[in-house]
Structure formats: structure tokens, C-alpha cells
Amino acid sequence: MATLRTFARIQRSADDVWKVVGDPSRIIEWFPGLVSVAVEDGVRTLTTKSGLPIVENIVTLDHDMRRFQYSITGPIPVNYHLGTMDVIDDGQPGCLLMYSTEITPEPMAFVLDGVISEGIANLAHMLNEHNEEQR
Amino acid sequence: MGRKILFITTDQMRYDAIGANGGRVARTPVIDSLAAEGINYDRAQPQNVVCMPSRATMVTGQNIGTHGVWMNGVPLPIDAPSVAAVLGDSGYKTALIGKSHFEPLLDPFLRFEENRQGFAGQTEGHRGFDHMELATHGAVGFTHYSKWIRDNHPETIGGFFQVLNGNLEVSDVAGGDTGAPQVKVNPIERDWYHTDWVANRTIAWLDALDASDDWFCWMSFPDPHHPWDPPESEKHRVNWRDLDLPEGYPQDAATREAIIDSKPRHWRLWYDGELVGNYEAPAKWVPATLTPEQILEVNALVHVENELIDEAIGRVLQAIAARGWSDDLDVVFTTDHGEFQGDFGFLFKGPYHVDSLMRLPLIWRPAPSAGGGVDAVTRVSQPVGLINLAPTFCAIAGVDVPEWMEGTPLPIDDADAHARGFERVLTEWDSRQPDGTAMHLRSITRDGMVCTMYRPGTVHDGTEGELYDLANDPLMHVNLWEDPARRSLRDELLLDLADNFVEPIEMRHAQAPV
To answer: Does B169 fall in a domain?
Structure first.
């Protein structure tokens, strides 16, 4: 099994970041390569720009812990997957966003590593830019 | 009007694939005639033996450490310098038709421009190319060719070999007469196969140019790279039962394995199926199971594919002649890296710096109007690299070679090579597989020797290496790395390698396995 971890410090409060991360439908605002998202009955369905659907079970949506976990169930070839996003108020300025992934088959890790890194960068940019506008 | 440049590449072609270099099976009269009228380089090497790093070097004229594409899956930055942009700025019309692979192919989110354009059927190009129509080894993915197949001949998609299995591993499904891996009978009509499609699209682009245009066209054939699934109608050209086994394949298993065991440990690990050091080689395939008959069948299909390429090139050259451009035409023919094709008992490629993978065909037929043509028959024995291509295109176009290019124009003969310091060529390999396997090879070819050192990784401890005397051991069967009599030579080569190696600025993350 491959494991990935990406993180970013975002110059916004943990509550502000969680408003985006903790709403599974808002992924389309920051994750690259998506054209649609639908969330219904604990299932999130994404469609990528190539027309590929990705179906995910929402495993954890803990507003107190600020933890979101999901699992890709198909139809892309994934045997096991768990994605975890934690928004952490660590006492430093802003907050820490941690995105972890466990996945088999291992080659999928390469694909997700790149797109997740770009997504985290987009999210940090989006929130930091918004922060600048508010100042 | 200036000189026109037709840059022809194949993918994964051996030096001995063509008649001009001693090939005795595939009939390649068109390429052979280019060699007969031009300059044939006997020791041309890539800077890396897989596609993306090698192709990034071709388009940038830079070392791997500079452009940063250190393994397949690492994209060439979108703002990387490009020889096409340099030529475009000087008035050339520019196109890349066929396989680019500057960016990852496995891209379900369409993050990369080449896939976006292919998916949408757009051809406006980028990286300095005015026009791009892209293809790869089959009918899947986001290339222009795969879209064309889907739109026009969807019934043919299943005829191609399916490269990835359900676990996203490279498949070892057997086929053909011998059960060889990645061999498949493909009923597709020849005209619809990607080799002829690349030629057809090249001709179409050329036909749309004005007669007075100067142009640079990179025509990039995806073959003879695996999978081996040429059009069934063409298989009759070469009967595998009529072939001889390659000279590089020791038929006696004990002899073969003793040779492998004299090399660094990853050779034997792959042979026994315990370690696959390159994602593109089938994950489950065990080279020790490869039979002589399978080698012959794979080679026969490669020869068929090479004949189709040669004929496709001939059609393009005829179209160019019909436009009246032949006298002003420079043709450069090469490939990105080689292929084992049975040498040592292996197929495919990987972290193995031997001539099967490193010695490439490279031919430059200068424009007759520029003093090239039949009077320029030359063989260059001094080492050159694909890093020299981009500066050569600049020289042909009469453009100053930009400072960011790290190569210099190809020599026109050995005297020129000696005068301009063509003494060595470097080839490197770095890989980090999803399971954490990491390997790091650095090679120098100089004075008829090939010396490879292994930096510490997950397989090697930094003490292993390879040293071959090409004059006395062209098959590279005798590893002289530990030979006390060659110690000083080895150390001298390693010092020269260290002095000339360009360390990477950064090791960017791979974005896909390929």
C-alpha cells in the first residue's frame, strides 16, 4: 500500500478553512480537473474533465475534530483507499492543513500525489488571497 | 528562404534496427539512403534511457539535471525553454506530430496541456510548436490519435494490446504464436495504425504551408516501442521462424546467467522476477521465463514495425519533394532510447546502461543546397548525445544557439568532433518506484569504454558498477569494474564523469507513473 502526505500552512483560522474543507461539495472550488460534484446520502460523486466519474463514500465528517475522511469506491481501479483531511489549530499563526492518502494499487499514488499537491496549493492560494481581500 | 528541418524520431529503436547500421532483416531503404547521403553517427546516446527525460533533453538541449525531468511521470515545466520556440521566433513554422511525452500520459484529471488538447481535438500546440497532433502506442488515452480512432474507427480499439491491467500495472498478457508478453494480433487496417496516421498528419500539415515558408517539423513515431501489435496484414513481411537469435542473447542458460551475475545485483533480481526497476516493464513478467521463440517473435514484429516506419518516412519525403523543398531539406533521424529485444535474456528497458538501450541510430542528412547530399557521406565515431540535437537545429536555421542550451551542434565528421571536444557522452538514470525502490546510475562513454557507477539507493550500496571495453567486448558481457588492471582507467573515467555531470537543481515529484 502506498501512503501520501501533503500539508500546507494557511493564513486563515482553522474555522475558516474548515468551512471549505468540511463541506464536501466545495471540493470543486479548489481541486483541479473537476467539472461537477454531487453529494447525496453520504456518497460524493465527482466527474473529471476527461469525463471519468469518481465515486466516494464519505467516511468521517467530524466538525469538532475538523476531520474529513473519504474512500474512493470506483469506478477507477482502486482496491483500497482512504483520504484524510485534517485542519489543525496548532497555536501558530493561521492553521495547518494536512492531507493524507492510503491507496492500493500503488501506481495510483503517483496520479493522486500530483493532483492532491496541486489541489492543496490551490486551496491555500484561494484562502490566502481571500484573506488579503479582507484586510 | 532558409533550410527546412524534418526531425524524425522513433521510440525505443536499437542502433542495429536499420540496414545502414548492419541490420539484416527489416528493409529500411529510405532511412538507409538518408545515411548514404549524410552523416551517420556510430556512437549516439540518450541522456536517459526512458522516454520523458530523453525527449525533454531533445526539445530543450539541456542535461537531465537542468530540465529536471529525471524519470517518467515528471512533467517538463510548462515554461521550460524549447528549441521550437527559438525557431518560431526566427520565422519558422513549427509542428510536432506523433509522440511528444513531455508530460505524463496517465492523466484522468486532464491537468496537462498536451492531454487537454488531444482530448478536445485542439491542435494549436504549445512549447513553441504552432501545431501539435499527438499519438502514443495505442488507441487509449487523450491523444489526438486516440480521439481520431474513437471518432472514426471505434471498433478497432480492442484490437490493440491493453497495456494497463485493472491494478494499473503494466500487463504481461501473452500472445502471438509463442506466448510472448505484450504481443497481440491487431486486425486494424494498416492505414489506421498510428505509424501511417503520423505520416498522414505530417503530410497534411506540410500541405497547408506556403511554398515560401521555412519550417521545422518533429515527426515522432510511437513504434517500435512495446506493445508489439502491428497491423496483422503486415505480419507476413517477417516470419519469426526464419530469424536468427540475436548475437546478444547467450543461448546457454548457465552462460547467460553467469554474465548477468557479473553485473550489479538488480540485473539478476529482475531476471528472476524479484525486482522490476522500471514501471514500463510488466510488473509480473519474469525474464528468466523468456524463450528463444518468444525473442524471435518479438523481433519479427519489431522488424515489421520498422519497415512500416521506413515506408511512412518515404511517403513524407515524396510529399516534400512534390512541394519542391527537397534541396533545402535537412533530415535528422533518431530515437529516444533503445530496447533489449532479447539481449542478455531480457525484453523492454530499465536501469541498464548497455548498448541495447544506449546506442542509438542517429543520421543527419544535410540539405543538398547547403553542401550536404551525396558528397557528405560520413560516419562519425566520436560520442555524441541527443543533447546535441536542439543546438544542431539552431545551427541549421542560422540562429545563435541560446545560452540555456547545454549541448553544441553535432559534428559533421570526426575531425570536427575532435576539434570541438566531442570526447564523452553521459547517460543517467534515477527512479523512485511506488514501492519505494530507488536506483541511481551515472554513466560515461569515452575512449571506447562505458563506465557506470551506482549511487546508493534501495538496491545498491554505492560500491557496485560496470566497466566495458567496447572494442574487445562489444556485447558487454565482461564486466571489468573489479579488474585490478583496469582500476586506474576506471578511476579516471569516474573523475571525468564527476567533472562533467550536471547535478539536478531539484527532484520534482512524479505526477503519474508514466
So the answer is: no
pLDDT classification of A135: cutoffs 50, 70, 90? very low
Instruction: CATH number of the domain at B244, please.
Output: 3.40.720.10
Tell me whether residue A41 is in a domain.
Answer: no
Whose cell is 560515461? That residue is B444
- Which among B112, B157, B310, B114 is positioned nearest to B219, based on CA atoms? B310
| Residues in CB range of B235: below 8 A, 6 or more apart | B185, B300, B301, B304
Instruction: Please report, for the domain that includes residue A97, its CATH number.
Output: 3.30.530.20
**pLDDT at residue B200, rounded to an integer:** 98
CA angle B57, B63, B68 (to 5 degrees): 80
The answer to whether residue B234 sits within a structural domain is yes
CA distance B483 to chain A (A): 40
pLDDT digits (tens, 9 = 90+) for B368-399: 998 765 555 689 999 999 999 999 999 999 99
List the strands of the sheet with B438-446, edge to edge.
B424-432, B438-446, B449-455, B465-469
Is residue B236 scored above 60 in pLDDT? yes
Min Cα separation A10/chain B (Å): 22
Say how many C-beta atoms besides its own lie within 10 A of residue B393's C-beta.
Answer: 27
- Give the gyration radius of chain B's Cα atoms: 21
Would the CB atoms of A110 and B73 count as touching at under 8 Å? yes
Query: In chain A, what are the helix, strand and coil shares in percent, each to the nearest 5?
Result: 30, 45, 25
- Give the cell for residue B490: 576506471
| Interchain contact, A50 vs B109, CB within 8 Å | yes
Is the predicted pLDDT of residue B260 greater than 90, yes or no? yes
pLDDT of residue A108: 85
pLDDT (tens digit per residue) in B404-455 = 999 999 999 999 999 999 999 999 999 988 778 999 999 999 999 999 999 9
Q: What is the pLDDT of residue B497?
A: 98
Q: Which of A3, A6, A27, A49 to probe the B interface (max B CBs under 10 A)?
A: A49
Q: Which helix (H) or strand (E) holds B468?
A: strand B465-469
- CA–CA dist B54, B358 (Å, integer): 11
**B22 inside 8 A of chain A by CB:** no
- Asked if B434 lies within 8 A of A110 by C-beta distance, the reply is yes
* Structural domain contains residue A8: yes
* Any domain includes B336: yes
Owning domain of residue B70: 4-154+175-423
| A48 within domain boundaries | no
Q: Do B109 and A33 touch (CB under 8 A)?
A: yes
Count chain A–chain B contacts defined by CB atoms under 8 A: 69
What mean pLDDT do residues B324-350 have?
Answer: 98
Using the beta-carbon criterion (under 8 Å), do A77 and B106 form an inter-chain contact? no
Answer whether residue A69 is part of any domain.
yes
Q: Does pLDDT of B91 surpass 50? A: yes
Chain B residues 57-76 with a CB less than 8 Å from chain A: 73
pLDDT of residue B467 exceeding 60: yes
Q: Name the residue range of residue A122's domain.
A: 2-23+59-134
Q: Output the pLDDT for position A130.
A: 64
B182 Ramachandran zone, left/alpha/beta (phi>0; psi -120 to 50):
left
